Amino acid sequence: MTTALADLPPLRESLAAHGLLAKKAFGQHFLLDLNITRKIARLAELGPGDQVIEVGPGPGGLTRALLETGARVVAVEKDERFQPLLEELRDAAPTLELVFGDALKVDEAKLAGPSPAHLVSNLPYNVGTALLIKWLTGPWTPASLTLMFQKEVADRIVAQPGEDAYGRLAVIVSATCRAQRVMDVPARAFTPPPKVDSAVVRLVPHAERSDAELLRQLERITAAAFGQRRKMLRSSLKALGGEALADAAGVDPQARAETVDLAGFLRLAAELGRRSG
Q1: Please, what are the domains in the chain?
Q2: Which of 69, 121, 175, 233, by CA, is between 20 and 30 Å from 44?
Q3: pTM score, whole prediction
Q4: Which residue has the higher pLDDT, 4 or 33?
Q5: DSSP secondary structure, 215-246, as one string
């Protein structure tokens, strides 16, 4: 840790000095415990010179821990109220770059530059899933993702066929990366505390990236199948080909989405792609 970082006042003091409170509309819950943020930084397996993109730094609790590893951090923040506070942090750590804007609209490839970049974030609850889908299926591929979600979302990310939490998110995740839940964080660790606990999930993209068109068809198939998850595939996929589609893909048309594994969904997506021309 640099001397300048170590000399920064505690985050609670900085928030009070700037009169900043969490905004419910942005899904903000501040993580101010440096012991927890440092553990997240360790779980991300960062080292000096690594490139990191952080979304939703807020007052900069996790940002401080990321900078302590020696990583170069690009922090993307939508709430410009935090600009003075984050600029103080940048003055203490020149390896921090600040971008004020909507993370759903930014071009991560431009932010990262030519080197591989890792994503490490305590994601805003209201856009966490949408951001994850963007990063997994979009044109830019991160080197790794170490992300905090609501516990319920984390359960859905790592769920397996047959489990209650298994759904389209788990299928898309398993098609694009290896995912592991690595840390639980209780609600009381946040300011203000949310109504639910959280969990950190670490995702490492597969070496061979899935074809973009196959992923697009996989999103169509899973949206239809899990949109009516209690129905058999011949019914839930009726608009896409129903029983004929399932038979051609070698998947039991009487199966329900919650029992179909990744291989089955990939065959369905591939068959749908062939039929779509």
Answers
A1: 3-205 (3.40.50.150), 212-276 (1.10.8.100)
A2: 175
A3: 0.92
A4: 33
A5: HHHHHHHHHHHHHTTTSBHHHHTGGGTHHHHH
